[in-house]
Amino acid sequence: MVVEIGGVPDLDIFEDTELSLALGKYGKPAIAPASIITSARRFRDRGIYRQALLNQLLKVMYHTHQDPKKLNWLYESKSQINVDYSK
Question: What is the pTM of this model?
Answer without folding.
Answer: 0.70
